């Protein structure tokens, strides 16, 4: 039995050496897992802070969007108001243009007959229209409203200045 015992002891020694080397290998693997677990925990903490920052950014963006939306709504409303005002001014200017057109042929006939004669005084209500006909577009832009102009003329001039400036 000596040989048999010796064979079993050698086999057990070999198995013991294999187990020792395998346990060293597993110990290294466990230390790597522990180190990676620490990195994983750090990664999870970083992900949580990033998601919190993203959430605060979304909240800030939502508030900014609401503020811009309100400002845009006010701008749209003022634009609608200006559109109504301009439409009203256009209607008034068309009326004034029709009045000018009705006065223009009468003025041409009168001036055609007076070429040789000295200048005849104009009617006071025609004076603003005749002076407006002689103005160039650049002069109309810089024209200051006078007290003799009607409210519609003053509003038209104000709207033109706002549009240009």
TrEMBL record:
Q: Name one Pfam family in it.
A: DUF6468
Name the UniProt key words of this record, in alphabetical order. Membrane, Transmembrane, Transmembrane helix
Under the heading InterPro entries, the entry gives: DUF6468
Q: Which residues cross the membrane?
A: 6-27
The DUF6468 domain, residue ranges: 33-107
* Superkingdom in the source lineage: Bacteria
Question: What residue spans carry the Basic and acidic residues bias annotation?
Answer: 118-128
Stretches the record annotates as Disordered: 113-165
The protein here is known as: DUF6468 domain-containing protein
Record organism:
Gluconobacter potus
